[in-house]
């Protein structure tokens, strides 16, 4: 115990060394990240504008989609701008408080997004399996409570994990082999045997997330069985077009995060680690606007109205 206390030191900053060892990646990722960030920002802002201004996009599904876009803007803004600035200025340090804040905000927003995706699956379940009760069940007050509960659960989730991560003593070296502070990379800097509490939190979190995912899958079993009973082929296609994008986003978000936290080794720089981190931290906010908008006729019609108004 004495040896552990002796080796632990007071930390003032960490070094984010995700891409610095690979000169090719270092030269490519700044324009790539900047392009991805602008795409995510513009796509999600467009969804927020459309679902706010167009009177045909005022249903609960679009209310939840508006909140999802807001979360995605915040989610990608927690990590990417700091990484770009670090690379441009050749300064890879992040303060202890900055690292803790980044982990809290990242986990907070990830937890909120996952909770909101579960809420959106329930919305689709009620709309398709119980259409006569949809307006009563998914009224404005209920939708607002569900969104508030999603944000609150994400805040609790982030608080628990940042407390568990930074309650352990760190023994150095204080080099994080990632382009942002994430829990697996930071925990590798902790003194040996001190990470048990946060690992327990991570396992409990993924267990709970997996149980929620099973409920989501069960809801989609009922949804697809109801869709297949629709006599019209056009009706089936229209209903599937509102469900498949949501299921795609959930699977991408959940399994890429699970792979990064449970299957990769963050003790040293690794292209696989970086790829998995990009997959769950950068791509979902960028792809969500495309996934939800390309097959949605109402969104296309609302965008067409705005473009026609601007042309005239």
3D structure, described in words:
It is a multi-pass membrane protein. Residues 43-292 form the G-protein coupled receptors family 1 profile domain. The chain is 76% helix and 3% strand. By secondary structure, the chain is mostly helical. The protein has a three-stranded mixed sheet.
In short:
With 312 residues, the protein is an all-alpha fold.
Key phrases:
312 residues, mainly alpha, Rhopdopsin 7-helix transmembrane proteins, 3-stranded mixed β-sheet, 12 helices, 3% strand, globular, disordered N terminus, transmembrane helix, GPCR_Rhodpsn_7TM, transmembrane, olfaction
Number of domains: 1
How confident overall, as mean pLDDT? 80
Return the CATH architecture. Up-down Bundle
User: How large a portion of the residues is in β-strands, by DSSP E?
Assistant: under 5%
Sequence-ordered SSE layout with sheet pairings:
Layout: H1 2-7, E1 13-16, H2 23-53, H3 60-89, E2 93-95, H4 96-129, H5 134-137, H6 140-166, E3 175-176, H7 183-187, H8 196-228, H9 233-262, H10 271-281, H11 283-293, H12 297-311
Parallel strand pairs: 1-3
Antiparallel strand pairs: 1-2
């Amino acid at each position: 115990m004495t040896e552990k206390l002796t080796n632990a030191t007071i930390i003032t900053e960490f070094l984010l060394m995700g891409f610095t060892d690979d000169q090719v990646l270092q030269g490519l990722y700044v324009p790539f990240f900047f392009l991805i960030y602008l795409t995510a920002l513009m796509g999600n802002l467009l969804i927020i504008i459309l679902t706010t201004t167009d009177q045909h996009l005022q249903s609960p599904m679009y209310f939840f989609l508006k909140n999802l876009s807001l979360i995605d803007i915040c989610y990608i803004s927690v990590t990417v701008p700091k990484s770009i600035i670090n690379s441009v200025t050749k300064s890879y340090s992040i303060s202890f408080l900055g690292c803790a804040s980044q982990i809290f905000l990242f986990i907070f927003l990830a937890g909120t997004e996952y909770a909101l995706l579960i809420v959106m699956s329930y919305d689709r379940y009620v709309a398709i399996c119980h259409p006569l009760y949809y307006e009563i069940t998914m009224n404005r007050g209920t939708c607002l409570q569900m969104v508030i509960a999603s944000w609150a659960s994400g805040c609790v989730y982030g608080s628990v994990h940042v407390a568990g991560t930074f309650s352990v003593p760190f023994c150095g070296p204080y080099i994080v082999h990632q382009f942002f502070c994430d829990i697996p990379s930071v925990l590798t800097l902790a003194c040996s045997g001190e990470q048990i509490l946060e690992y327990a939190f991570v396992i409990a979190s993924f267990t709970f997330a997996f149980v929620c995912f099973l409920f989501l899958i069960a809801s989609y079993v009922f949804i697809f069985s109801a869709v297949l009973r629709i006599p019209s082929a056009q009706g089936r296609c229209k209903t599937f077009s509102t469900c498949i994008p949501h299921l795609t986003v959930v699977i991408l978000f959940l399994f890429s995060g699970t792979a990064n936290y449970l299957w990769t080794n963050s003790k040293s720089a690794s292209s696989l680690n970086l790829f998995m981190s990009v997959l769950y931290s950068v791509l979902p906010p960028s792809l969500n606007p495309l996934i939800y908008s390309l097959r949605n006729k109402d969104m296309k019609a609302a965008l067409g109205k705005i473009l026609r108004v601007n042309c005239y």
